[in-house]
Amino acid sequence: MIPRYSRKEMARIWEPENRFAIWLKIEILACEAWAELGKVPREAVEEIKAKAGFDIARIDAIEREVKHDVIAFLTAVAERVGPVSRHIHLGLTSSDILDTALACQMREAADLLLEDVAGVERVLADLAVKHQGTVMIGRTHGIHAEPTTFGLKLAMWLMEVRRARERLARAREVASYGKLSGSVGTFANVPPRVEEYVCLRLGLKPEPISTQIIQRDRHAEYLAMLGIVGASLDKFATEIRHLQRTEVREVEEPFSESQKGSSSMPHKRNPVACEQISGLSRLLRSNVQAALENVALWHERDISHSSVERIILPDSTILLDYLLVRFREILEGMRVYPENMQRNLKATRGVVFSQQVLLALAQAGASREAAYRMVQRNAMRAWEEGEEFKALLLNDPEVRAALSEAEIESCFDLGYHLRHVEEIFRRVGLGQG
């Protein structure tokens, strides 16, 4: 059963109440900056700070009439502030407020996503250590290849999640730029000092150069980082889905006691949570495409990006927040079946040790081509006739002419494949020493 997602912090970031609160904060900070420059009386700023506020219903009512969200907001605020409201929005253009506020929201969202990733990271680290020695078959092209451990698979995911954390930190950084540079970015009616003052107090950096807007390559990069994190979650979920297949059944996502898998087949335990992660990750990736389309705007700005961002930024951050929390829950309740891993490891009757035999033959003096032919011949018989690969090798005169029984036996040593696992874990930062 998929639990109801109840986390509200991310949604709150994008709600009108928070957005308008940030707008008001920017406007008041700009008034303070003007007062420091001696262009607005300090007592006027104090009056503005004392009286300024907003009512969302009133803003909506005005916007229905004027068809402009920032003008509606300013009008609603001015109704409360009175005559000194003439100092609000002095020298500014709408995008000075919109883009700077959006930077604050994107940064807040990134902070929550970083918390989410840290949670996944902790669970993966614990699971990787727990299953460091849980032996399973490695697969390439979906076909049995050579032995590995489930812990190595999880440790690899852990490293990818760590890179996800780094990406989200970079996304936070690239988004943390504000601008209050006026109608085409020339500071004609508002000096750079106002921008510097406001951005400093918001924890943002001033955009070094802007037009009427902050350039949308920043937003595209931000969403691309989110899309990559989602792609990693899709990868992990897809692996669990494959390992949960009935014929494999090495791992299963959580399945609660009262959960139902099918309306018609009571036996079903479907990987629906992982399938949901895979499906929703596609939405994240599609939003990246929309963000890339927003980069190319007309001259100093047009508004074609705005409507798109009002959907893709809230949707992407809320969605990735959900996916990270959901995947952590999957990991926390994941069922692992080492006995099935052992069964599957032995299913191909030893052919997964073929490379060791190949190397042993080459070291004994056989050409690589001859060694490959000898090994493949016996491996194909094991595949097709269901015989033990080792027995076939021991009964092959050409192989026995090169290798003794003891040498053939040594090729089937599982420890040979796993002798560097501890070293890999140390490189990942999970081992001792």
Structural topology:
Blueprint: H1 9-14, H2 16-36, H3 42-51, H4 56-66, H5 69-81, H6 94-130, E1 135-140, E2 143-149, H7 150-175, E3 177-178, H8 192-202, E4 205-206, H9 217-243, E5 251-252, H10 272-293, H11 304-333, E6 335-336, H12 338-345, H13 354-363, H14 368-385, H15 389-394, H16 397-402, H17 405-410, H18 414-418, H19 421-428
Parallel strand pairs: 3-4
Antiparallel strand pairs: 1-2, 5-6
Helix pairs in contact: 2-3, 2-6, 2-8, 4-5, 6-7, 6-11, 7-9, 7-19, 9-10, 9-11, 10-11, 13-14
Given this structure, which CATH class of the largest domain is correct? Answer: Mainly Alpha
**Could you tell me the mean pLDDT?**
95
How many H/I helical runs? 19
Q: What is the SS-derived class?
A: mainly alpha
Summarize the main sheet: 2 strands, antiparallel
CATH H-level name of the largest domain... which superfamily? Answer: Fumarase/aspartase (Central domain)
Distance between the termini: 42 Å
Domain count, please report it.
3
Estimate the global geometry from the Cα principal axes. Answer: elongated
Strand order of the largest sheet: 1-2
Strand elements, count: 6
Low-pLDDT sequence parts: none
Tell me the strand percentage band: under 5%
Helix content range: 55-70%
Element pattern in H and E:
HHHHHHEEHEHEHEHHEHHHHHHHH
Mind telling me which CATH architecture of the largest domain this is?
A: Up-down Bundle
- The CATH topology of the largest domain turns out to be Fumarase C, Chain A, domain 2
Cα gyration radius (Å): 31 Å
